[in-house]
Design a protein that fits this description.
This protein is of the alpha/beta class. It has two domains: 18-135 and 277-302 and 313-332, no CATH class; 146-267, Hypothetical Protein Tm841, Chain: A,domain 3 (2-Layer Sandwich), CATH 3.30.1180. The chain has nine helices and twelve strands. It has helices spanning 57-71, 84-97, 111-124, 131-142, 164-169, 217-227, 241-244, 266-274, 321-324, and strands at residues 18-22, 40-41, 73-77, 102-105, 146-151, 177-182, 186-189, 206-211, 232-234, 256-262, 278-280, 287-289. A hairpin with a 3-residue loop joins strand 6 and strand 7 (186-189).
Length: 349
Amino acid sequence: MVLRQECTETGGCASVPTAIAVTSPDLVLAAADRHTPSAAVLHSAEGRGGRAEPYDLDRAIVEMHTLIEHHGYVIALCPASVPDLAVHRLHAVRSVLESDRIAILRPELPPLGLAVLVLQLRQLVMCDFSPGVLASAARLLAHYIYAGAVLGSVARLDRVPVSLTSHAKSWVPGAQFAVLATPQPELVRLTGPEPPLLSGPAFGTRMYYAAGQQPTDWITGTLAPAWQVQGAVETRLPAESGRWWATGKPGSPGKLAEFAAAIPDISVLYQLVSSVRREVCHWCGLELIGDRCGFCAAPLADPPAPGAKPPGGRGRGSALAPVIGLAAATALAPVTGPARAALPPAARP
């Protein structure tokens, strides 16, 4: 494993060619060491510092341009629950800058799980991975994050399958449910002397948990020991958690306590990403792992037929084309279309 040049004590890494950016400061977890760089917070994504201010496109452009000038590439991550308008703004900035160096990712992870993914990418940015590999590695790493919550009600939850029985029991006073959103949805009711446990990871993890208006006793006293986690770290609840879990809204999360367990060891993360075959995007020329480029969203090209002449590269100047199309108006729309199958499961460490 090759690490890049050291960081300063403030978290800045002048030699790191890729910046990890987020749309909210509560998606930036504290690192266990001083070498892991922090993530850039895009204050202009939804208003300066989270306050309800008019959106300033000029400020957003300057903010992103500064990151590109300082680092070279930017991987921006935002929760799937944020309004589409926030994602449209990021695509608008990329379109105005006409840059192929901005990846906009919106993983289907709960907010705390996304914060853990951001932390893992911040660790890997210090390794000898190219920006394209880092961006596409987000999909791989998401499969190894066990993210869920303890909820007081699942009546409005639509991101995890909920049975009619569980829906009806949500109206019973004092009801509690443990829900696992990723990697495989699961829901159990926390009633009786020995309620069932959620399926846990078969590899070493560290757990992060955050409380809303729901106690965390079951998470720290029952789930963490059962999963044999390598430590449990309390953090603040992301603002988007209430909206993602359908228990509240930003500023009022409701009856919710969130948790996420993931691989903490950078050497294991490095081995996991390195074990996947690398390809070259036929559109923008960046490296990728999996079946889709993290920067231009172009799918991996099918292998050429025997005897066929391989197509020429399009060059990086046109890397935005698969995403924004020819008309400026379409640049404001996020990348859509049916998602391809995720990366093939890598061998568990």
